[in-house]
Each structure stands twice: as structure tokens, then as C-alpha cells.
Design brief:
Structural class: alpha/beta
Strand content: 5-15%
Strand order of the largest sheet: 11-14-10-15-16-9-17
């Protein structure tokens, strides 16, 4: 057989040694996944029909030996808490959420102690002594309460261990370490009772002390055989971590003193094409992996012999989107992470909404608009909730916070589904909350059909979360420690990782996509490995333990050194029988998913074998010469007709003309296509909203005085009404937006100050003897512009903030909430007036003057701006400084010069040959 894999070699030996006795043997493998591949390999070596041998994983085998089932981590945590409560005085007992923080770490340490068959009391006493030594410099005569509690905790560790161990034995389940210790204790009985032909252990690398003892005992009793898969390169190099464990087994196990050590192979020295490829970010790796697979397919390689090993599970979705269409069959051993499950995301949003509502005000149950909209617009909810009006009211009325009662009032006739989602949660009724969540998931199931793939997939997502909620319900009913919503949510976040959705696929054909651990025992001709960066492959150091590093080293417990050696074996085993190897890494050295290239890449280069060809490449995205190409839209006949409609019916406003000057594309979108911004809740008052409020307040204050001369008594009356006028405008414009705190309160105070400052300035003008007669406020004026450059008369139309007669002159005032300087309204040259964006305020003022001129009754006109951010400058009137002259009166000659420039701007706007071009800032 050409290029036999380890499982092919194993199958050949098993069939040769046991033949028709196959049903009597048990084959133990490192994981369950390899079982399917081994059965397929056995089929190739068997000619007739025979019952298959028993094939199991090491964990299942040890569980069977011990007669104890494995419990999940959350169940163990609850059982440990029961034991903890029984051992701890009531005044010292911690709530479950606090207990869980340290108990998870302690359970991991118990697990390691038992897996490595250490004397628990000795280890735990050792840790206690270390803690006491660490406090040697503190005055031991006067220990603090915190010190006493700290040392007391470590004194209690052996007590916790003994009580918890005994408790689990009575329950018949336990953690992995307990199961392994009990299996070792039961080893002789199992060995004496075993009636099978042979136990075959195959493909192992790192073994804990319990596994070592079990396998060695069975070897001594001649009940087992072991087949390793190690290359002589790794075995004979005393520094190579890929052989760290197997070297020790070969040296220390007395069974190998006079017996053959099987198998040491010579595969790594064979020809291999190794491609080390660097590219920025994880998505870049996904794209390159897809291209490699496409090239392998084109070159005639079988994808059945190709593995794509993901160093990080979050690469799965980008990889699936990057695969070429000609991939055909595909098998994914990794589950779809619950973090991306839409049903899980919905539950997270509901937890957030209701938890925050209770925390804000449990009585009124205050909801935040964004959290409400997040639920309403969720893809599993939106099609069935019928809440369009609710969203419109929230956005239209600027509602940021609302009571639960108000939410239901706005919705009107609420459906059962709406009620399920938003009805009040009782923070202490955990069973009721879980029941509500179950009903929500059942409602979603009823909405989804069986005719469309999308609905079937959505159902699978909902069902996976439904199972987790049922498990939580069982926990809550069995253990009464989940007493609040806070604890429930904390446990939910831990349990939800169990809600992976499996992919359907054919495990024996097509491209194999897997994680690192799933690749154990398997061999492929073409191997692509992603995320070859330090901290990813191998994984980074983690010290989540009460047992110090040096104690672990002394007692023989695994440290990061041993964990790195395990990764090293997995990595080199993937390469062992492969011919084409592609190793992808992230070149970014900064950022969340960044890191140095993996040490394995450097090791491959330094320890390069003669038959290996190593190629290094860097791929970077091709950057265009321009980051962004400005949009350009030609003026079609329909656009020209629309322009004519605006020019002759509604008219061009000064703001529309200056808007065109700033960005023609924005003019096209807003005026031609009539696309307006989506109505959204304005949490913080925008500048334009603030401007609208100030304009409105001044209009309401001054409206009673239109048509007569102002008096000091008028202004004094306005000063008394100013704050109320601003408040009324805030309510009218900002509707139900929050203005009593935060940034909006500051904006509210700024608006009041601006209005009051304006009135003070007006009062001073009257005190200085100026005569002010108000003629118009926020009034619309319009005038036709006729010019030889224009194809037809054009209407100029717009609102003028204020027109007054002041000391015998007409004054047109434009309010600006932003900052304006005198230079912004000073013109030095008429040429190019309408080509410079900086002249926008001059154009607006002259447009106002042009529109009002027919009503001026031969009075001199001046037009200017009052900037609320520059009140010290007062009224800043338009000024012309050119040709050695300076004047600020807008007379007929000024307007004629302006009309020439305005006609040029409008002519360009109406010209069908001049497209709308986007201006980039």
C-alpha cells in the first residue's frame, strides 16, 4: 500500500494478529473522532464479513473501568457549593457567584492532583505552608482579620477535598481526576475480570500518571499492546519536544527493557514542500487558505487527503466564506460557536434589557430605547413582532428612557410574543424567568417552517439554546443556589459554550476542516495550518491555579513546558506523513489577534532536513493608488427635469446653493433624489438641533413686537420669559429626550445663556439710543433671478431669520450657533465668489439681500451674522474690501455684481454637461 497512514498500519497489524478474533479486542484511541477513520481503514484490510472490534476513547475506557460517570463543570460547581455550605459557618459563607470565582480554579487543581495520583493532603499542606511562609515578615502577634481568613482558607483545602471526594462517590459521578484515581484503585479487579482477547492502545503521546499506571499494569499482565507513532528524528533528539513524553516512556517503562518498542517510523525525513506564508490579520489567512485549496484542486490533488487545521476556532466562518465553489464535499469537525448563534445573541439582549431595567428602577422598570430596539430589530424577532409603529414613535419622539407601562401603551394591542419578550422579569423568580425564555424559544420555533433551508438552520440554532435553557432549569430546580437574576446570568454565560451547533457532513470524504486536537492520530497528504503565531500555536502560558509553578515542577504536575510539548507533538505529527504543507501566520505584531510568528516556524528552518523544501512568502493586500474614488453622477434628462422643477416651482434656497458649493453629490442625494437621513433617537443634542431651539425661542420672544419699535420694557419682559421659552422649544423640538442630566443638561444651559446674552446685547443697543423696529422673523421670501446665462428664470427662495429697521437702515440678520469671524463675511474680490466654499456665508447673506430688495422701500440694506459663539463681535455685517474701497451697505451695484456670480453658479448647476461630483473633505 502506498503512503500508508498510521491507522492503515495499525489496521494491517490488528487484522494480521487477530483475524477472526476482532470482536474480542478493544482498541483505545486518544479521541473519539479517529474511530470512524480506523473502521474505514479496517474495512480495506478485511476480505470477508466480521464483527468490528470495540473502539473507544481513553476517557470512555477509564470511565468504564471506574464505574463512575463524568459530570459537567457546572454540575460539579453546584455539588461543591453544597459541600462548602456544610463545612462553613453561616457567617462566613459566600454567595454562590463569589464562591464560583475561586472554586473553578480549585476544582482544576483537585483534578490535576488526582490525574497524577499525588497524595492530596501532602500537596495541599505544602501549599498551606507556602502561604504561611509568605507572611513571615508580618507581625504574627497581630494578624489582621484578612490574613486570618486567607490562611484559614488554605488550611481548609484538605477538608474541602476529602468531603467533596466522598460526596461525589456517593452520587456516582465526578470530575475526570476522581474517575482516573478510582479507575487505578479498581485496576486489579478490572484486570482479573477482563475476558477480552486484547486491549490495544494506539496513537498516544502525553499520558498522565493514572493513564501510565493503567497501561503499564495491563502490559505486565499481557492484556494489552501499545502502538506509538513517533519518528526517530524526534525520539533520538533529546532536546526535541515532540518526543519529550515518548522518550521518557521508552526509557522508564520496564516493559520495554527486553521488548520491542513499536512503532518508531522514518517519515519526517522524506520529501516535503513546506510553504510558510505570512499575511496581515485572520481574514487574510482565510482568503489564502481558500486559494491554496482551489490550487490543490486544480493541480489534481484529492481533497479527501487534505486537512485544513484551524489554530483559532473564530477563523471557521471566514474560512467557509473563502472556500472555492469546486470544493464539493466537506466535513467540519468543529461546532458552530454559540457566541455567533442568533438565538443566543437574542437571549443576551433580553438579559441585558431586563437586568438593566431592574437596576435602574425596579418599581417603574425603566427601559433604555437602544436595548428595546436591539430586541425589536433582531432577525429572529422583527418579522413576527409587528412593532413598526413602536419604533417610529421612539425615534420620532426622541424617547431615550421609558417605563414598561409606557412601552406597552405605545405598542397598543400587544401580541403574546411581544408580551413574552418585554413583560417584567421577577429578579428572584429564576424558574419563572427560565420558563419565560423557554416559551420565547418555543414561539420562535412555531414561527419557523420546514420548507426553507434558512428556517431549518434557524430552528437548529433555537433548539441548541433550548437544550441549554432546559439544563439551566434542571440546575435551578435541583440546586436552590441560583437565587437571583444576576447569578442566573453568570451561570448562563458559562453554560452557553455547550450550545455548539454541529455541522452535517461526510466524515470520510472531501476536505477536512478541524481543530488541532481533532487531528490526533490522523494523517493527510496536504496540510494547511492557520494561526501559526505565538500565543495561538502553541497556546500561551496560563497560570490559573493555586499550586505555584515550582511546586508543580517538583511534584511532576504539568506546566506550560509540558503543554507546549503536547502542541509540539500535534504540530509535527500533522507534518509527519504530509507532502505539501502550508503554514499561515499573522504578520501583524500589534492588535488583539497579533503576535510573533510561532517558534515552530523558526524551528523548522533551523532544523531543516535535507529532503525538505521551505518556501517563505509574504502576502499583503493590494492597495489601490486611491483609497477612494469620488462618486460622479451624470445629469440625465430626468435629473435635468427635476432641476427645472426645483428652479421654477420650489426655488433654490441659499442653504441649498451653498450646499451644492460644498458637495455637489450631497445636493444630488438630498435635493434630486430626496433622500433624507433616517429618523433616529438623538441621545445627545446635535448642533443643528440646538440651533433650531435657539431660533425658535427668539422667534417666540420677539413675535409680539413685530411691526413696532422695541422698548426697554419689551426686552425686560423677554428676559423674564427667556428660560421658559427655551424650555418650551426643547420640549417641542427634542420632544421626550432627556435634558435634566449629562451632556444634554449642559446644552440646555448653553441655549439659555445664548438667548440671555442676545437679549443683554439688544438691551444695551436700546440704552445706547438705537431705534430698532422689527419687520419680520423667520419669514419666507422669494424672488425671480433672470440672466442671459440662465436658460430660464430661476426662483431664489428661503427663510430670513430677522429683518429690522435700525436707525433708518434695513438690517438683515442671520443667527449662527457655530463660531463665525468677521473675516467670514468680508469679500475682497467678486471673481470666483461662487467657486470657494469659504464664501458660503457671504453668498447666503447676499441671497437674503437679493430676495428682500423689492421690499426695502429705497432704504439702505445691510446684512450680517450674529454668532452665538462669538457674541463679543456683535453684528458682523457683510463688507466689501476691494479696488481700494470699503463699504458695508448692500446697494443696487453690489447686488448686480452678486447676480453675475450667482448666475454662474446656477448655470453650472443646471448645465446637463456638468456632472455631480463628490467633494472629498
Amino acid at each position: 500500500m502506498q503512503n500508508p497512514t498510521f491507522l492503515d498500519k495499525l489496521s494491517e497489524r490488528i487484522v494480521a494478529d487477530y483475524g477472526q478474533d476482532l470482536p474480542g479486542i478493544t482498541i483505545v484511541l486518544p479521541n473519539k473522532r479517529a474511530r470512524v477513520f480506523l473502521l474505514e481503514s479496517l474495512k480495506k484490510h478485511i476480505t470477508g464479513t466480521v464483527f468490528a472490534p470495540t473502539i473507544t476513547s481513553i476517557e470512555d475506557f477509564v470511565q468504564e473501568m471506574a464505574g463512575i460517570r463524568s459530570a459537567d463543570p457546572i454540575e460539579l460547581l453546584f455539588e461543591f457549593y453544597n459541600v462548602y455550605l456544610g463545612l462553613t459557618p453561616a457567617d462566613r459563607q459566600q454567595p454562590f457567584e463569589n464562591f464560583a470565582n475561586w472554586a473553578k480554579t480549585l476544582l482544576q487543581d483537585f483534578n490535576e492532583i488526582d490525574r497524577y495520583l499525588l497524595e492530596p493532603h501532602k500537596v495541599l499542606k505544602y501549599i498551606e505552608n507556602i502561604q504561611e511562609i509568605e507572611h513571615w515578615s508580618v507581625d504574627i502577634e497581630k494578624p489582621t482579620d484578612m490574613m486570618m481568613r486567607h490562611l484559614e482558607f488554605y488550611k481548609l483545602l484538605p477538608v474541602y477535598y476529602d468531603a467533596f471526594y466522598a460526596h461525589l462517590l456517593t452520587k456516582g459521578f465526578g470530575y475526570q481526576g476522581l474517575i482516573y484515581r478510582e479507575a487505578v484503585a479498581n485496576l486489579s479487579h478490572f484486570s482479573n475480570a477482563y475476558t477480552g482477547a486484547k486491549l490495544v492502545f494506539a496513537g498516544f503521546n502525553a499520558l498522565n500518571a493514572a493513564e501510565e499506571k493503567i497501561i503499564q499494569h495491563l502490559l505486565l499482565e499481557n492484556q494489552a499492546r501499545v502502538y506509538w507513532d513517533i519518528d526517530y528524528v524526534f525520539l533520538n533528539d533529546s532536546y526535541h519536544d515532540a518526543g519529550l513524553f515518548v522518550r521518557r516512556f521508552k526509557k522508564d517503562w520496564k516493559q520495554y527493557a527486553g521488548n520491542v518498542f513499536e512503532w518508531v517510523v522514518n517519515e519526517f525525513d522524506k520529501q516535503k514542500d513546506i510553504h510558510i506564508i505570512g499575511t496581515p490579520k485572520t481574514v487574510g489567512q482565510a482568503k489564502i487558505a481558500g486559494k491554496i485549496i482551489e490550487d490543490l484542486k486544480v493541480e489534481g490533488h484529492s481533497l479527501d487527503k487534505t486537512a485544513l487545521v484551524l489554530g483559532e476556532e473564530n477563523l471557521l466562518i471566514p474560512v467557509l466564506y473563502s472556500l472555492p465553489e469546486n470544493v464539493g464535499s466537506l466535513n467540519i469537525t468543529m461546532g458552530y460557536s454559540s457566541r455567533n448563534n442568533p438565538a443566543q445573541i437574542l437571549l443576551q439582549k433580553l438579559f441585558k434589557l431586563h437586568t438593566n431595567a431592574i437596576n435602574r428602577n425596579e418599581k417603574s422598570y425603566t427601559l433604555y430605547y437602544r436595548e428595546v430596539l436591539d430586541v425589536l430589530t433582531h432577525p429572529l424577532v422583527e418579522p413576527y413582532i409587528n412593532a413598526r409603529r413602536l419604533r417610529e414613535v421612539i425615534n420620532g419622539n426622541n424617547i431615550t428612557f421609558m417605563s414598561l407601562q409606557k412601552l406597552f401603551e405605545i405598542q397598543g394591542e400587544a401580541s403574546d410574543f411581544f408580551t413574552l419578550l418585554f413583560e417584567r422579569w421577577n429578579a428572584t423568580d429564576v424558574i419563572g424567568i427560565l420558563s419565560r425564555i423557554s416559551n420565547i424559544l418555543l414561539a420562535l420555533k412555531s414561527f419557523l417552517g420546514n420548507d426553507h433551508d434558512e428556517d431549518k438552520i434557524a430552528k437548529a440554532f433555537v433548539y441548541s439554546i433550548f437544550k441549554v435553557v432546559n439544563r439551566l432549569t434542571n440546575y435551578a430546580e435541583t440546586h436552590h443556589h441560583i437565587g437571583s437574576l444576576q447569578v442566573l446570568y453568570a451561570i448562563y454565560k458559562q453554560v452557553i459554550d455547550l450550545a455548539e451547533v454541529s455541522f452535517e457532513g461526510e466524515p470520510l470524504s472531501g476536505l477536512q476542516i478541524m481543530g488541532v486536537l481533532e487531528s490526533r492520530v490522523l494523517d493527510f497528504e496536504n496540510v494547511i495550518i492557520t494561526s501559526m503565531n505565538e500565543g495561538k500555536f502553541p497556546a500561551g502560558k496560563s497560570t490559573n491555579s493555586f499550586i505555584p509553578y515550582d511546586v508543580k515542577r517538583e511534584l511532576g504536575l504539568p506546566t506550560f513546558k509540558e503543554k507546549d510539548a503536547i502542541y509540539t507533538y500535534h504540530f509535527y505529527h500533522l507534518l509527519l506523513r504530509a507532502k505539501n504543507i502550508y503554514l499561515l501566520y499573522n504578520t501583524e505584531s500589534e492588535g488583539l489577534d497579533a503576535g510573533e510568528p510561532s517558534r515552530f516556524l523558526t524551528q523548522l528552518e533551523i532544523e531543516k532536513r535535507a529532503a525538505h523544501t521551505i518556501t517563505k512568502k509574504l502576502y499583503n493586500a493590494e492597495l489601490p493608488k486611491k483609497a477612494y474614488e469620488p462618486m460622479e453622477v451624470a445629469k440625465t434628462p430626468l435629473v435635468v427635469d427635476r432641476l427645472k422643477e426645483i428652479a421654477t416651482v420650489k426655488g433654490f434656497s441659499p442653504s441649498a446653493l451653498t450646499g451644492y458649493l460644498r458637495n455637489p453629490m450631497q445636493f444630488y442625494l438630498q435635493r434630486i433624489l430626496r433622500i433624507s437621513e433616517t429618523d433616529e433617537v438623538e441621545e445627545s443634542i446635535a448642533l443643528n438641533t440646538l440651533g433650531t431651539i435657539i431660533h425658535g425661542a427668539l422667534e417666540e420672544l420677539y413675535k409680539p413686537t413685530i411691526g413696532r419699535f422695541l422698548t426697554l420694557q419689551d426686552i425686560e419682559g423677554m428676559e423674564q420669559q427667556a428660560n421658559k421659552a427655551v424650555t418650551d422649544q426643547f420640549i417641542a423640538v427634542y420632544k421626550e429626550g432627556e435634558i435634566k442630566k449629562g451632556r444634554n443638561l449642559l446644552a440646555f444651559e448653553v441655549a439659555k445663556r445664548n438667548v440671555n446674552n442676545f437679549l443683554k446685547q439688544e438691551k444695551k443697543s436700546l440704552q445706547d439710543g438705537e431705534a430698532i423696529k422689527l419687520l419680520a422673523l423667520e419669514t419666507k421670501f422669494e424672488r425671480w433671478l433672470e440672466h442671459p446665462l440662465l436658460p430660464y428664470p430661476v426662483l431664489i427662495s428661503g427663510n430670513i431669520d430677522r429683518v429690522e429697521e435700525r436707525n433708518g437702515k434695513l438690517r438683515i440678520t442671520d443667527y449662527k450657533t457655530g463660531k463665525v469671524e468677521k473675516g467670514n463675511v468680508t469679500l475682497k474680490d467678486w471673481n470666483g465668489l461662487t467657486h470657494e466654499v469659504k464664501n458660503d456665508k457671504i453668498i447666503q447673506l447676499l441671497c437674503y439681500a437679493f430676495m428682500y430688495e423689492p421690499h426695502a422701500k429705497a432704504l439702505e440694506i445691510e446684512a450680517g451674522i450674529i454668532s452665538f459663539k462669538n457674541m463679543r463681535s456683535g453684528f458682523m455685517g457683510f463688507t466689501y474690501k476691494g479696488d481700494g474701497t470699503e463699504y458695508n451697505v448692500i446697494n443696487h451695484e453690489v447686488l448686480e455684481s452678486f447676480k453675475e456670480q450667482l448666475a454662474v453658479l446656477i448655470c453650472e448647476l443646471l448645465n446637463a454637461d456638468v456632472p455631480f461630483k463628490e467633494e472629498l473633505v
